[in-house]
Design a protein that fits this description.
The chain is of the alpha+beta class. It has two domains: 86 residues, no CATH class; 86 residues, Glutaredoxin, CATH 3.40.30. The chain contains nine helices and four strands. The protein has a four-stranded mixed β-sheet with strand order 2-1-3-4, covered by helices on one side. Strand 3 and strand 4 form a beta hairpin. It starts with a helix and ends with a helix. About 6% of the residues have low confidence. The structure holds FE2/S2 (inorganic) cluster. The site of FE2/S2 (inorganic) cluster has 12 residues, from helix 7.
């Protein structure tokens, strides 16, 4: 065997287009493209109009539209998953990491679907002193939520997916503490009995 032939049998062919790692990369790429296509199908004309309109507010740099787009996306889908991050990045001609950084920096943005009813309990001073920690505990116990279950970007959610409960900071109604936001409705002076009634009402 000449020297060249020997090298060919000994050295791995790193250009092999069908090597396992290349196949893995392509499979991931295909999954992402399929997911993006599905996402595009789910985008309603209204949402696309809202996105286009939001971008017009930032004529100098489209990048500045990233936060408004993330809000629009989360309002529409309830959370922002990987394909959403990728879609927004492509729409703004950015790398997806630039969008991922925003999603993981701001606690408001979620990467997992929340429960049907989202209960936000204020834990800032006035509410904390008026018993909001006990109210939060009551919500969690009544819905079967383990408050430690999820991390920063997945809200603790009940096993039946009906409720998510989280602490938030001041909701701007300190005079009627403790205060909760149930979806978009403000609940004031919430007692433990009120918490139970809220769970019943939204179950
Ligand atoms: S401290 Fe709870 S609403 Fe302000």
């Amino acid at each position: 065997m000449d020297q060249q032939a020997q090298r060919n049998t000994e050295e791995p062919n790193i250009e092999d287009p069908f090597s396992p790692s290349d196949q893995g990369d392509r499979s991931l790429e295909r999954d992402l493209e399929a997911s993006l296509a599905l996402q595009a199908e789910n985008l309603t004309a209204i949402l696309l109009d809202q996105i286009d309109e939001a971008i017009t507010h930032y004529p100098i740099s489209k990048r500045s539209a990233a936060l408004p787009l993330l809000h629009l996306w989360q309002n529409h889908f309830g959370f922002i998953d990987e394909s959403g991050i990728e879609w927004i990045a492509r729409r703004l001609d950015l790398n997806s990491i630039a969008i991922l950084e925003l999603v993981t920096f701001y606690p408001w943005f979620r990467q997992k679907a929340p429960g049907k009813t989202i209960i936000r309990v204020c834990r800032t001073l006035s509410c904390a002193m008026a018993g909001s920690y006990e109210v939060h505990e009551k919500f969690c116990k009544s819905t079967g939520i383990d408050p430690c279950l999820e991390g920063h970007h997945g809200m603790p959610t009940s096993p039946d997916k009906k409720f998510s409960v989280e602490f938030v900071e001041c909701l701007g109604s300190c005079g009627s503490a403790p205060v909760c936001l149930v979806n978009q409705d403000l609940a004031e002076r919430v007692s433990l009995e009120d918490a139970e009634a809220i769970i019943k009402k939204y179950s």
